[in-house]
Design brief:
Layout (H helix, E strand, L loop, with lengths): L3 E6 L6 H13 L7 E4 L2 E6 L9 H4 L8 E6 L9 H10 L3 E6 L6 H18 L2
């Protein structure tokens, strides 16, 4: 099984956390406050707060290397202080396959539900 990092990318207040906390976590059967999950035989961890809001992440990323699935949020490359490229680089160095999911602002609930379903499909494919 290949380790997979799913990076949810979107502008500030675009719905990254909503997609992850409200819809994805429900599909995984965990509450909005939980971060760890097990799906089939995979151990996973979710970081819904964007990396830019939590500056220590890049230096502290190695503690997540033990997980099979990592879901995290970041802002797009074009935003000031974006950590997307650094995050992708560090994750790849740790042996994660990185998959980026784009989130757009003001798309309505069906959009965020669909994105959570898309993320769940990736998790399902990886955790066979």
């Amino acid at each position: 099984m290949k380790k997979t990092a799913i990076v949810v990318v979107g502008e500030h207040f675009s719905g990254k956390s909503k997609t992850i906390n409200k819809y994805l976590k429900a599909k995984l059967g965990i509450t909005e406050r939980k971060h760890k999950f097990t799906y089939k035989k995979c151990a996973g961890y979710i970081l819904s707060q964007s990396r830019e809001e939590r500056q220590d992440f890049i230096n502290d990323i190695s503690k997540y290397s033990k997980y099979d699935i990592l879901v995290l949020a970041t802002r797009p490359k074009f935003e000031k202080n974006s950590l997307l490229q650094d995050t992708e680089s560090k994750l790849k160095m740790m042996g994660f396959e990185v998959i980026v999911i784009q989130i757009a602002k003001d798309q309505g609930e069906d959009f965020y539900k669909t994105k959570a379903t898309e993320i769940m499909a990736i998790i399902s494919k990886q955790c066979v």
